[in-house]
Inverse folding.
C-alpha cells in the first residue's frame, strides 16, 4: 500500500523568508501524481501545486516550487517570500494514475508565519 | 460558478443516532469523493463515485457507513448508529473527470461531533 509521510508536524517562518516543507512517500508504481494542498483554518482544502511523476522538471507556481526526487521518493515544497496568508496546514498527497483519483494524504505540517 | 458545498457545516449527534451529510458538487463534475479527517490528521479516503456508480468504497470503516449519489449529482453520506470514533470532519471533493491531472475541488466539510 502506498503511504505518505510528513515528518514535520510544525514549521515556522519569518515573513518574506523562505521555508521548505518535507514529504516522503512509498510506492512501487512508476506512474503517479503528487500534490501539495493548503488547508487554512476555514477548512477549505486548496490545491497549491502538482507534479506528474513522469516529468523530471520540478513544478513551480509563483512563490511555490517543489523539489521532486523520484529515486529517493521525496517531494518537498518550497515557499519563497512567505506571506502572512501562507499560514495554514499543508498536506502532501499521492495519487496513483489508475485508481480513479483517490488521494492518499500525509499527516500534515502546520506552518506559522511570523510578522 | 459555485464551488463544492456541504451541509450541514456542523452536526452534533448523540451516540446511536443516524446522521446524513450532504454534498453538492460543482455542476458537471463527474467524479465525487468522500474523505474523513480526524482532528490533527490528514484526510482519509472513504468512497468514490463516477456519475451515479460507486466505484470504490474500500475506505468505508464499517457497514454503518453508506453513501449514495442516485442521480449522479448530489451525494449523501449516511452514518447509522453513530459512535464517538465517528467524530471527524467529513470532506467532499469533486472533479471534472477521473484520473490524470484533473484537480479535485474540496468543499468546506461537515464537522460531526458524537456525544
Amino acid at each position: 500500500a502506498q503511504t505518505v509521510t510528513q515528518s514535520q508536524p510544525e514549521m515556522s517562518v519569518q515573513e518574506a523568508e523562505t521555508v521548505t516543507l518535507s514529504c516522503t512517500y512509498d510506492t512501487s508504481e512508476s506512474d503517479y501524481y503528487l500534490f501539495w494542498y493548503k488547508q487554512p483554518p476555514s477548512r477549505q482544502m486548496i490545491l497549491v501545486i502538482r507534479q506528474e511523476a513522469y516529468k523530471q522538471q520540478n513544478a513551480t507556481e509563483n512563490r511555490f516550487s517543489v523539489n521532486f526526487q523520484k529515486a529517493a521518493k521525496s517531494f518537498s515544497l518550497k515557499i519563497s517570500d512567505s506571506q502572512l496568508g501562507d499560514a495554514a496546514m499543508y498536506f502532501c498527497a499521492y495519487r496513483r494514475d489508475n485508481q480513479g483519483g483517490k488521494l492518499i494524504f500525509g499527516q500534515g505540517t502546520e506552518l506559522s508565519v511570523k510578522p | 460558478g459555485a464551488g463544492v458545498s456541504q451541509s450541514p457545516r456542523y452536526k452534533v449527534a448523540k451516540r446511536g443516532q443516524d446522521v446524513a451529510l450532504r454534498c453538492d458538487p460543482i455542476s458537471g463534475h463527474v467524479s465525487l469523493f468522500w474523505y474523513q479527517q480526524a482532528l490533527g490528521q490528514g484526510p482519509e479516503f472513504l468512497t468514490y463515485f463516477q456519475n451515479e456508480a460507486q466505484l470504490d468504497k474500500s475506505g468505508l470503516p464499517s457497514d454503518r457507513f453508506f453513501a449514495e449519489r442516485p442521480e449522479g449529482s448530489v451525494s449523501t453520506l449516511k452514518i447509522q448508529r453513530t459512535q464517538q470514533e465517528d467524530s471527524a470532519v467529513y470532506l467532499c471533493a469533486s472533479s471534472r473527470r477521473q484520473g490524470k491531472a484533473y484537480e479535485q475541488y474540496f468543499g468546506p466539510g461537515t464537522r460531526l461531533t458524537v456525544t
